[in-house]
Design goal:
It is a single chain. By secondary structure, the chain is mainly α. It has two domains: about 5-110, no CATH class; about 115-150. It contains nine helices and no strands. Helix 5 (about 70-85) runs antiparallel to helix 6 and helix 8 crosses helix 9. It is elongated, with a radius of gyration of 23 Å. About 0% of the residues are buried.
């Protein structure tokens, strides 16, 4: 069964785009010259992808602000711009940014991330695996304190 002429162009485009997603997800400064050429071709030949890519880069620029005030204005502008595009694929990310707006701005006040907590969690998980179960939670707590302090 042969495909109609109208759908063939779309199929060719999809074939050309296959495997290119990771170039679009990477930071521009980490791309090789040939990868930059591929990204440029995708952005020029696929208008909607170009719009979304520009919004991705703009959202990434949020972290370049020195103050929460500037970042808040940037995020508000980003939300308005993203909503006005009318691209349905952006609905979920718009909702996430909108729902976590204040939490995103908390970073500008504290400059803290959850890396320390993730590290502590990995130590606790290692203690749990190593013991294969404790008689009660107090023993687990004690081992976590000992391991976290470096005594054992």
């Amino acid at each position: 069964m042969e495909r109609s002429e109208g759908g063939g162009g779309r199929l060719k485009d999809a074939t050309k785009l296959k495997g290119q997603r990771f170039f679009l997800l990477r930071n521009v400064e980490n791309l090789s010259p040939s990868q930059k050429e591929r990204v440029d071709w995708i952005l020029e030949s696929h208008k909607e992808i170009g719009i979304v890519y520009g919004l991705k880069e703009s959202l990434r620029d949020t972290w370049d602000y020195d103050s929460g005030y500037g970042a808040a204005n940037h995020l508000l502008d980003w939300l308005i711009t993203a909503e006005r595009t009318g691209i349905s694929a952006l609905r979920d990310i718009i909702k996430v940014v909108d729902n976590h707006f204040s939490e995103i701005l908390n970073w500008f006040r504290s400059k803290m991330n959850n890396g320390v907590m993730e590290g502590m969690n990995s130590v606790i998980q290692a203690v749990k695996r190593r013991a294969r179960g404790y008689r009660d939670w107090r023993n687990l707590r004690t081992m976590c304190y000992l391991r976290g302090s470096g005594l054992c």
